[in-house]
Write a structure and sequence with these properties.
Oligomer: single chain
Number of helices: 15
Strand order of the largest sheet: 1-2-3-4-5-6-7-8
Structural class: alpha/beta
Largest sheet: 8 strands, parallel, barrel
Number of domains: 2
Radius of gyration: 23 Å
Distance between the termini: 43 Å
CATH architecture of the largest domain: Alpha-Beta Barrel
CATH topology of the largest domain: TIM Barrel
Helix content: 40-55%
Shape: flat
């Protein structure tokens, strides 16, 4: 699995690169603006982006702002022309740029993906929330598809009546298996009191119980990634899946177990992946057990 670092903070990018594990970078306009603002006018946004692209060996994803195909195509070309001379660049296009239902822009993202991909510009399709969107993105020519695993976990939790900051934290692990088993137990108990198969199938309560803890058949962000990978493998689709919105090290491990092509990870998630209490304890024990004659082997003459 390739690892991208999901940040616009150049110090974090440099540090992660020094660890030898970074294959690319994903950013967004808000993160870049915050990073530039922290430098209090010492660098322009264009200079800052150039530096990120220069120091990163793999692709750096840069996002368009426009909400129509025409604007996204124009902005995608501009970003690619402006920064691809300094390193590898991918352009982030939303799979569906609509900001309200039925505004006529639902397919403008796909139009922009198709056009820019045909021009040889690598496209990272962002804001993918279901497998259907991922399939359409690949059909349009996306180089990368980015399902937002953490946001789907949050969405499922809110559908269950949970509140972020009250019932769970942003970086909390989402145990979909626990929820599935609890829902299954409750469903079975309810169904035992029903009569015929017809009565069971017509029951709105049974339907609600079956739909509890999922989003249209997707039970977690990790399962979303799994379903997309399965579809791509079924048809030998070359689009690479970037598991995005990863909230904790366990989630990163689980998408790696699926065989995802790439995970884009916040800096703090990468930090969490390398830590374990028993590792630290072992180092303390090893250090305490070092005998003087062995230590003397490392003394320079």
């Amino acid at each position: 699995m390739k690892i991208f670092v999901d940040t616009a903070e150049i110090d974090e990018i440099k540090t992660a690169i020094s660890w030898g594990i970074v294959d690319g970078v994903t950013t967004n306009p808000s993160l870049i603006k915050k990073a530039v603002d922290r430098r209090q006018g010492k660098v322009t946004m264009e200079e800052y982006i150039k530096e990120i692209v220069k120091i990163t060996q793999g692709p750096v994803s840069l996002e368009v702002l426009g909400g129509t195909a025409e604007k996204m195509i124009k902005e995608g070309r501009l970003l690619y022309k402006k920064f691809s001379h300094y390193g590898k660049v991918a352009i982030k296009i939303p799979v569906n740029p609509s900001i309200q239902e039925k505004d006529g822009l639902e397919f403008d993202g796909l139009k922009a993906i198709k056009q820019l991909s045909n021009e040889g510009i690598p496209i990272n399709v962002t804001l993918i929330m279901n497998p259907e969107q991922a399939l359409l993105a690949a059909k349009a020519g996306a180089a990368y598809a980015s399902p937002f695993a953490g946001r789907i976990d949050d969405y499922i939790r809110t559908k269950m009546g949970m509140k972020i900051g009250v019932d769970f934290k942003k970086d909390s692990y989402f145990d979909s298996e626990l929820i599935r088993r609890a829902a299954e137990k409750k469903t079975n108990a309810f169904m035992n009191n029903l009569g015929s198969v017809t009565e069971t199938c017509r029951s709105d309560e049974v339907r609600k119980l079956f739909e509890f803890g999922q989003d249209d058949g997707v039970r977690s962000g990790v399962e979303l990634v799994a379903k997309i990978l399965q579809i791509y493998r079924n048809y030998n689709i070359k689009t690479e899946v970037i598991a995005a919105s990863i909230r904790n090290p366990r989630q990163a491990r689980e998408v790696a177990e699926l065989g995802v092509h790439i995970a884009t990870l916040p800096f703090e998630v990468i930090q969490g992946m390398v830590t374990h209490y028993k590792t630290t304890e072992g180092m303390r024990n090893f250090t305490a057990d070092i005998v003087p004659p062995y230590r003397d082997l490392f003394k320079q003459e």
